[in-house]
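pasting input
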Amino acid sequence: MTGTHALLEVKNLHVTLTGDRRRRTVLHRVDLAIPAGAALGLVGESGSGKSLTARTVLGLLPQGARVEGEVRFDGRSLTAMAPAALRGIRSHEIAMVFQDPRAHINPVRTIGDFLTEGLVTTRGVRRAVAEARAAALLGEVGIADGARRLRQRPSELSGGLLQRVMIAAALLTEPRLLLADEPTTALDVTTQAEVMAIIDETRLQRGLAMLFITHDLALAAAVCDRIAVMYAGSVVEELPSGHLSDAEHPYTRALMASRPDLGGPGKKLTAIKGRPLSAFETGPGCAFAPRCPDARDTCTTQHPALLPAGSGQAACHFPHHPRAAAGAAERSTSDA
Amino acid sequence: MSTYQIAALGRGSTRLGRLRGLIRGRCVLIVAGSVVAVTVLTAVFAPLIAPYDPNAVDPTAVYQPSSSAHWLGTDDAGRDILSRLLYGARSSLLAPALVTLTAGLVGTALAVSAAWLGGWYDRLVSALLDIVFGFPGLILAVVVAAMFGAGLTVAVVTLSVAYLPFIGRVVRSAALRERQLPYVSALRMLGVSGRRICLRHLTPNLLPLVLVQIATSYGYALLDVAAFSFIGLGVQPPTAEWGLMVANGSTGILAGRPEQSLYAGVVIVVFVIACNLLGGSLSQRLLGDNR
């Protein structure tokens, strides 16, 4: 990937979980890099390991999880870090916005408690100061009467408002990296757009780096600089968001083809045949091989590595767009 | 009765149905609550209400039947039974309160820390709680009394240990569920320390459950303290205590004077039933379960 000094670097990440006496691989091989101030969209189907990747970055894994590989933040290894130091990273450097805000805020405490607790306990900020800052930040994320909202409980706020509170809580720690785990999935479409705009604006204003997890390719392409596509616990393709239409990996191409086209004449949606596999179900070869229209013998026997292909990287033995295959040589020279 | 009427009964739309709803909802709470409140008040104000000194011996008036001078009669040493019941409420109520509060406090601390930390510590705590749970409290008390001598302190400490599992096991399983909730990850994400999450978030959210467990085990603890005193391992004579009075009065049964045992027994039974009903109604209100 581009920068030599990426803010967040995930290298060859491999995670196994123990459940009812069996070990199961959930992340097979994840490689990511986010330069400071850049946004990376992590897309994939449900169960492909997107959220787990974000949770692994911050060590929020269930008990009995085993992590191999490395996660580096600003040159420091998070995977080898002591719990107290990791807590420092969580409270100062990396913040996370979760999918379902209602479930992620203690329902019996006030919004003010939720927002200020981190500042008061980990930074020694005085409560009154923390509350003033929280109220100001609530204004920034589009909640006008912040001071009153601080006294309310989560049940008194709508889902959209709560997600703004969540974003405010993340921004309040003045992080350098924001992990957004499907922040708009639980919201209705209009609030979704508003919340997305708030995330995008505040991120650009503050120069935050962001890992944006979603299964909405178009949304990811709109707010992110680069896109990483996950399938069955591994990153299969990584490319600039503007180049999604000439993706190299057949899975990414299939995802693009299965999007509804609002502008053109109505036609039947194309679906990817078969069902998505979990990381522990995959064989020795490419995880996508059973569903891939271009699969050959090598695909079922050898695991493809993530190698430069086209404008990004792809984990595919035959990473060429069928239509562009003939002109691939010319394209690579013109890109260089 | 037609099915129509039965269905109406269930909805509480007939007079009988409404009455049933009232009994289930409020009446139990009111009656049980008043019994407990009155008993607690008499324990507190025993010196003001009691007509006699509970330990005043009168050899000239042993085994007196009920009279205007001694409402509930006198015992084998001529002591006024009513006064002894009133004073007896003090140690009879206080000892189980200490037992359940200690067990509640220590049990909750053990349970929440075990659920939070997990690993070998959780296994150790669970195993210890299971061992104590499998050990009958009375036998434990006999063993401890044999080592440290009988007395109220020994009884309270032993029973506190014996009651740990009743609080600890239930609270641990609830804490395990609670710590999986997303808001806990969100707090960890904000850099809040584990100790603070346990103290400020998990424990307060588990508090209704702890209160209900304390309330429901209080009646049993009272019964156990009384049983301890009955077999001579708890409160020592001449202190007035209900369980001890039952034991003491048993000598009078042969003399045709069962009053002391009878009155003390009735007081224990009524109070314990009231406690359990109160605990049940509390659990219905706080936890919304319909056991």
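fyi Chain A has eleven helices and twelve strands.
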